[in-house]
Amino acid sequence: MMIIIISYSEVDLDLADEHGLLVVSESPCVGLSFADAPAIVQQRQAQATRALAELLARDCCRTCVVAWSVCNEPGGPQSVPTAEAKRQQTEALLELVALARAEGTRLVTFANIPEHCDEANRACDFLSLNEYVGWYYDVGKPLAEIGRQLEAKFVALHADFRKPIMVSECGADTLPGCHMMAPGLWSEEFQAGLLEVYTELERKLPFVFGVHVWNLADFRTPQMHLRAAGLNHKGVFTRLREPKLAAHMLRRAWRP
């Protein structure tokens, strides 16, 4: 399965059509904060609706597209500081889901953070979860413990929502050539071991039907402390497309 998140060039869809890859086509809407002034919130929602409508019109005749993702990470508690803001966010998400469902031929989802799943997820056909345990939180936790934590979380979510689960993002930044005897942050061993946890859960849990690794290759970002040398290093390949350990692990795990 090929997942396109945050809409890319139509060239990617041409390749997917040609080679028989399945695509979850996602709106470029990232974040739906309701912590701003009402006029800004209204403008943002109108933009999200327009972007999704444009995506549906662009990709509706693509044979490779099997599902729509109406947004990516609509936001956690900081985006909905009040009960009213939370209600507005859920209502806005339901409107986007309804717009995608009106297309009538594909499944509908949106990429969420597991801890922020709410009623809007119940309107979707499957849960898409962006999960970064061991990197953005619970830093330094042993890989075996991360595996147990993820399994418990996925089992609980499935029991609550009764829907299949796809891991729509997962990974950890990794400096090419950084190696450690015991897997530690930034090392190729940690990235490979962490991603192996997800592939093992995919095999173990029948309701987890896919894992999308973020990202294929390292890419440029604004400078910040989490972005060594101004790059997002979550790629399993370097910017020059040289494989890290994780690329070899994934090849073994996913080889037919």
TrEMBL record:
Concerning SUPFAM superfamilies, the annotation shows: (Trans)glycosidases
Pfam families listed in its UniProt record: Glyco_hydro_2_C
A Gene Ontology annotation in the biological process aspect, one of them, is: carbohydrate metabolic process
**What residues does the Glycoside hydrolase family 2 catalytic domain cover?**
12-255
Source species, domain of life = Eukaryota
GO MF annotation: an example: beta-glucuronidase activity
> InterPro entries annotated for this entry?
GH, Glyco_hydro_2_cat
Which family is it part of? Belongs to the glycosyl hydrolase 2 family.
Protein name as it appears in the record = Glycoside hydrolase family 2 catalytic domain-containing protein
This chain's source organism reads Emiliania huxleyi
